[in-house]
Specification:
The protein is of the alpha+beta class. Helix content is about 15%, strand content about 20%. It contains three helices and ten strands. The strands form three sheets. Strands 1, 2, 3 and 5 form a four-stranded mixed β-sheet that branches. The protein has a three-stranded antiparallel β-sheet with strand order 4-9-10, with no helix packed on it. A hairpin with a 2-residue loop joins strand 7 (about 145) and strand 8 (about 150). The model is unreliable at about 1-20 and about 25-65 (pLDDT under 50).
Length: about 190
């Protein structure tokens, strides 16, 4: 029984490592979650927009008919151990990818499994600079929310509003401040 459990753990580790490598190279940055307090947007919930549950891609509609997609695309600001950061309307942390360029996402294929995009055109909640809002068209034709020209993503391992476990992953994934600049500090241990 222990051999099977060890093999499963090893297999899971290898698969996760492959996904992370596809999304920014080797190395790794540990990240600690931190209790965040949302200061804008909707009341934080337990699921992110469009039916996105941490650990999987968005599955809901983006026309707002289920309510969650529209709430999610309202961006807000939360207070965390990293300072004030950009979150969606449900309080889930949003990230930028340093390999992206203005108006273009470099995260494709397996990368999108670990880093699902925030789909839709964003609106400004409290603390968000409306002039920095935008969106891009992905290679598959979907619209992805952007802030200060950075396409916005979730991290599959963030389980609840306020989690920032994607901070500094592989030294290329970071949260954004309300000024639209990446916060490139390592998470507190």
């Amino acid at each position: 029984m222990r051999a099977r459990t060890g093999l499963r753990a090893l297999t899971t580790t290898v698969l996760l490592g492959s996904l992370l490598t596809a999304c920014g190279g080797g190395g790794g940055g540990d990240a600690a979650g931190g209790g965040a307090t949302a200061t804008g947007g909707e009341t934080p919930g337990t699921s992110a927009p469009g039916g996105y549950m941490p650990g999987g891609p968005a599955t809901g509609t983006t026309d707002g008919t289920d309510g969650s997609a529209a709430a999610a695309t309202t961006l807000g600001v939360a207070d965390t151990d990293l300072g004030q950061i950009l979150v969606d309307g449900t309080g889930m942390t949003l990230y930028m990818f340093t390999k992206d360029s203005p108006g273009t996402s470099a995260c494709e294929g397996d990368c999108l499994v670990a880093w699902p995009p925030l789909e839709g055109t964003p609106t400004a909640g409290e603390g968000v600079d409306e002039s920095l809002l935008g969106s891009i068209e992905r290679s598959d034709g979907t619209v992805q929310a952007a802030y200060n020209d950075w396409p916005l993503y979730y991290w599959q391992n963030d389980a609840a509003p306020g989690d920032t476990t994607g901070q500094n992953v592989n030294g290329v994934w970071f949260v954004l401040g309300p000024d639209g600049e990446p916060i490139m500090t390592a998470p507190s241990e």
